[in-house]
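User: I'm putting together notes for a lab meeting next week and I want to include a structural view of one of the chains we've been expressing. I don't have a solved structure, so I'd like a prediction I can at least talk through. The sequence is below, exactly as it appears in our construct file.
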Amino acid sequence: MRDGKRIRVVALVAREPGLTTLRGLPVSPGPLEVCAIYTHRREPRSADPARGERPEYPRYVELARAWGIPLHAVDSRAEAEEMEGLEAHRPFDVLLSVSWWYLVSPRVLDWPRLAPINVHRGRLLTYAGLKPVQRALQAGETTVTLTAHLMTAECDAGPVLVERTHPVGSLQGPALLDDVERVKRELWPLYPQVAAEAIEQVTGPLSLPV
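Assistant: Thanks for the context. Below is the predicted structure for the 210-residue chain, given as C-alpha cells.
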C-alpha cells in the first residue's frame, strides 16, 4: 500500500489478456483502484482493412460502466501520442500496459508516481518485440515466459520485475499457428497474478487500506 491509500492504476489494455488482467486484479474493495481504462476499439488494418469493431470491445464498455470509470478508445499512433484525457487522471501511481499496440511516449512514461509496467508474453530480451510466442515455438523452446517489466522509451527493454514460465505442451507439427494460439490462450490466467506481483515490486505488499 501507499500511505494507507489504494494504488491508483491507469490501464492501457486490449484483447482478452487485457480483460482477464483487469478482472483478476485486486481492485476495490481491494488495494488497487483502476481510475481509467484505455483500449483499442478498432481492428488493426492488417486484420481487417475496414477496421471494424473488435469483438471484445463491448465487454470493455460493460466493465468500465460497472466500475464507474472512464473508458478511452485509442486507434491510431496520433491518438496514442496524444492520450486524450490522461492528464485529467493524474496523479496516478502505476501505468499498466497489457496487449497494448502502440509505443507509449516518454512524456507519458514519466507521469506515474511509481512506475510504468508492461506485461509481455515472451522472455526478455530474447523474445522482445512482435510475435514472441511464435518465435519461441519456432526456436524449439519447451516453455514460454510471461514477463512483467518496467517500461522505457525503448520497446521491451526495461528491467524485469516478474517472470512466469508455462510449458508449451505437445505441438501439432505443421499446424504451428494453431499451437501459437493455443499457448497464448493458456497464458491468459497468468496475467493477473504476474501484473499484481509486478505492482507489488514497486509499491510493497498489496493489502487493504485501514
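A couple of points you could mention at the meeting. Strands lie at 7-13, 32-39, 71-73, 94-98, 115-120, 143-150, 160-167. The radius of gyration is 17 Å.

User: Perfect, that's what I needed.
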